[in-house]
Structures are given as structure tokens and as C-alpha cells.
Amino acid sequence: MNPPDLNLLLTLDVLLSEGSVAGAARRLRLSPSAMSRALSRLREATGDPLLVRAGRGLVPTPRALELRGQVGPLVEQALAALRPATALDLSRLERIFTLRSSEGFVETFGAALITRAVAQAPGVRLRFMVKPERDSTPLRDGTVDLETGVVGPHLGPELRVQALLRDRFVGVVRPGHPLLDGPITAQVYAGASHVAVTRARPDRGPIDRALQVLGLERRVAAFVAGYAGALAVARGSDLVATVSARHTQGLRAGMVAFDLPFDIPTVTISLLWHPRLEADPAHRWLRGLVRAVCGDDPLAETVACVHS
């Protein structure tokens, strides 16, 4: 069975409103013959004559009267769905947004994001998730509304991407660490004992590649999966943790951070979302909120041996 032509709903609504083929034709800017053909198709689709002649005019059948109460609201809903979105009223917005980010994002940016979101849209709730792996599936299936991360080959080709901030690596040690007694050169850094953050091969990270260019290799005493673990270990030992600067501002409070004594590229953190949310006014507001709170003012602070 072929699906019905839904354009006929608008034709039927106008015909029942006008009670005249000629009047409906004028309203829809069709010729009377085209409107007569449309009425024939409606009669075939409904199995009812709908409008029958009475003197010089047409009168609706009982079926037409029944349909008149149903078709009008359907047409109005369809037209409303196809109109451009109205201005977003944040005071009335009720929605839960799920944001997925790297470790340390909530500790560094969460309070400011929540405070500003509640001030502008009291009915909005933010749900934060840490991403255990680089997988675009949650954005595709709608589990996650917005994500922050580094763009790489794992990224789904259809996703929307916008640069958010730049980040860099810094060394972090406990207060009073022996490393702070003198200048921190590349040789001094490499010769210290380290706790390394890695999810893949221990010797393939950007820190180790940068040291290899200098003919150096750091001594790694422990490997952990995330920044929080690395900083916890460094806080209670003489191991050096090397972490993302901006993502760990909240995590490394009370510790001493220092600039790395060798060149290493900065990292661009981007916003990622699925294209189905591109034009959604509420999602556009959320993206703007995250950019306003987390986006680049100049690249982090210069930390050269400062207490965080």
C-alpha cells in the first residue's frame, strides 16, 4: 500500500474551510481544475464524497464534518514544525545537557560553568562525564550532547568541531622537592624519577618523543591512567608528574608547577558535537556558554616554578 500524499491534508483543510472548490483554489493559488482533481484524490483516499452539491453550493458530508475537527490541528502542527525556531527563552528552558570531557575539566571549569548556566537558565542541569576512550559513538547516539577533546583519526567524519582552547604540559612536584633546589634543565628533568600518564605504550607519548630528540630518556618509576592519579602520587612522593596545565588547575592546588625545559607542541582542545544539534537554539546557547567560560584568554599562565 502506497502512503497517502500528506499535501492533501492542507488541501482538505482549505476545502472544508471554504466550502467551495473555487474559493479553495483561489486561496491555494491553484486553478479550479487542479482543485477539482485534488478533491477527487481526497474522495478516493477517504472513501467519502466529502463535499456534495446542494443547489449552487457544496455542503460537507458527516465524514467531512468529522474530519474538519481533526485536520485543522494537524495542519497547524505541521506548519508550526516547519517554521523557523522562535527566540530561545532561557528562563523557561528545561533540559539536561550531558558534557563529556577529559579528566580535570570539571575541577577546573565546572563551578564557573554551573554558576553561569543556572544564572541564565535556572531550569538547565549539566551532567558531566569523563571519557574513558576516544570514541564518537556517544555523540552519534545522543548519549552525549557536547564533548571536549583533541581532534584525531578516531573522530567521526560527520561531527562538528570548533577550537576551544590551547593547552600545554607542565611539570608538577610537591613543595620542597629537591628538583626545585636549582635550575631545571632538560638533563635534570630527565634524570628525576617520574610518574607517567599513559593509556598506550609507555614510551610513545609526546614527552618521551621530545626528550628522544635531545638524546634523553626519563626514568619512569610508575605508570597511571590519568592526571588525578599522577598528581596524587607526586603529591606524596619525590616523583615528577607531567600534566596538562589548564585541565589540572584545580587538581594540582598546593603543588609547584614548572615550565618544561625543552620544546613540546601545545595541544588544541576542541568542542565536538553531532550535526543534528547544529541549529538547535538551546545547544547553540550551551556551546556559547562553554566558549565564554573555558575558551582561550591567552594560553594559560606562565608557571615557571609557581605554587598552584
Report on the structure:
With about 300 residues, the protein is α/β, with parallel strands linked by helices. About 35% of the residues lie in helices and about 20% in strands. Strands 9-8-10-7-11-13 form a 6-stranded mixed β-sheet. Helix 1 (about 5-20) crosses helix 2, helix 1 (about 5-20) packs across helix 3 and helix 1 (about 5-20) packs across helix 4 (about 60-80).
Helix and strand arrangement:
Blueprint lengths: L6 H12 L2 H8 L3 H15 L4 E4 L2 E4 L1 H21 L12 E7 L3 H16 L3 E7 L6 H5 L4 E4 L10 E8 L1 E5 L12 H6 L1 E5 L8 H8 L5 E6 L2 H9 L4 E5 L11 E4 L7 E7 L7 H14 L11 E2 L1
Helix pairs in contact: 1-2, 1-3, 1-4, 2-3, 5-10
* Mean pLDDT value: 86
Name the overall outline.
rod-shaped
The largest sheet has its strands arranged as 9-8-10-7-11-13
Q: What percent of residues are in strands?
A: 15-25%
Q: Kindly report how far apart the N and C termini lie.
A: 70 Å
| Largest sheet, strands/sense/barrel | 6 strands, mixed
By DSSP (H or I, 4+ residues per run), the number of helices equals: 10
Supply Rg: 32 Å
Helix content: 25-40%
- Poorly predicted spans: 298-308
What is the string of SSEs from the N terminus onward? HHHEEHEHEHEEEHEHEHEEEHE
Annotation, overall tally of beta strands: 13
| SS class | alpha/beta
